[in-house]
Design brief:
about 0% strand, rod-shaped
């Protein structure tokens, strides 16, 4: 630098006009900032609630899928038992018929 000191800016507008405009401007951006802060907080709360809800439904879904798999396994086992019982029943009927028809 050349060693000169910076002079403060000289405003053409008198302070009685300039100050109220600056105050209005400051109040405007503060209000806008507060409004954005409220929207951000509301969005964060909504996101938190949605994440909890999604996790809750995911847990319920996993429990239901496990239960369905267990019930399907039990149905398959019951069908196998039923088939085995029918086979045993048919075998016993055949034996019974053989005993009735065979001479003593």
């Amino acid at each position: 630098m050349d060693g000169t000191t910076a002079t403060p800016p000289v405003f053409q507008t008198p302070p009685r006009i300039l100050i109220p405009k600056l105050v209005i401007s400051r109040d405007g951006w503060k209000a806008k900032a507060n409004q954005r802060k409220k929207k951000l907080k509301a969005a964060c709360i909504r996101i938190r609630d949605l994440v909890r809800s999604r996790d809750n439904w995911k847990d319920k879904s996993n429990i239901a899928e496990t239960r369905i798999a267990d019930l399907e396994r039990r149905i398959e086992q019951a069908n196998q038992d039923l088939a085995a019982t029918r086979d045993e029943n048919a075998r016993l009927r055949d034996e019974s018929k053989k005993k009735e028809t065979s001479p003593h």
